[in-house]
Amino acid sequence: xxxxxxxxxxxxxxxxxxxxxxxxxxxxxxxxxxxxxxxxxxxxxxxxxxxxxxxxxxxxxxxxxxxxxxxxxxxxxxxxxxxxxxxxxxxxxxxxxxxxxxxxxxxxxxxxxxxxxxxxxxxxxxxxxxxxxxxxxxxxxxxxxxxxxxxxxxxxxxxxxxxxxxxxxxxxxxxxxxxxxxxx
Length: 184
What we know:
9 strands; PH-domain like; elongated; 28% strand; 5-stranded antiparallel sheet; alpha+beta; 4-stranded mixed sheet; photosynthesis; thylakoid; 2 domains; Photosystem I assembly protein Ycf4; single chain
């Protein structure tokens, strides 16, 4: 959902709350839980869960390794769920012609940089830059070029958009800001 008018525009950015992140966090959690249960079952010499058999696994060394991978996977899955819960990377790009300001806001990790907000005068915008790298996975980025600053990305790195959609977004933004498009 984006907000557009003649003098004001807001583009919302989806962060970590994507379907793929939910999928991978669940898969990692279930897989690592299975590893951990099999490792503990090999130590206890009985099956904790009926569908995970550990009768052929010796505790030393396989059971220890299974427990280790299970614990490591659980930590990784908790990290993924924490990232999803905080919605890291979400935010918005706000372009206000009346105030003459561009504001870019993103949510970060807890601490000093939890809220990341950059503001620039619209008059300092030089161009909208497109970057396309057709490697696996394909990387299609839209940047805003600001005088005396690094190029600032306006979309997610993992955003899966077609070349046509990217060009349309960039052209629409360039028309709104009355700047040129670079790249491609």
